[in-house]
Design brief:
The chain contains three helices and two strands, in the order βαβαα. By secondary structure, it is mainly alpha-helical. A two-stranded antiparallel ribbon has the order 1-2.
């Protein structure tokens, strides 16, 4: 996965916003993914771009966080989720 594959993603510098962050801020214009790591956000955005839903993106982001931030995230932790699927 590389940044060029996600055409709707922009960074803070491109938007000229006065937002101070120590990490790369990732912006999407058609969807949103939030996490503590830009690469994990990118994984979630890629799932959405390929037609996945919010639950798919959340799982992809969580799995990526296990790689990018292993000391803070793990498969054995708690996950509190309220999820509503209007198709069921």
């Amino acid at each position: 996965m590389n940044m060029e594959n996600i055409e709707y993603m922009r960074y803070n510098d491109d938007l000229n916003l006065n937002f101070k962050s120590r990490r790369s801020v990732v912006y999407g214009t058609h969807c949103i993914v939030s996490s503590s790591q830009p690469l994990a956000c990118q994984a979630g955005l890629e799932i959405l771009r390929k037609g996945g839903n919010a639950a798919d993106a959340a799982v992809a982001t969580a799995v990526a966080l296990n790689v990018t931030e292993p000391c803070s995230c793990g498969i054995g932790g708690d996950c509190f989720v309220l999820y509503y699927n209007n198709e069921t």
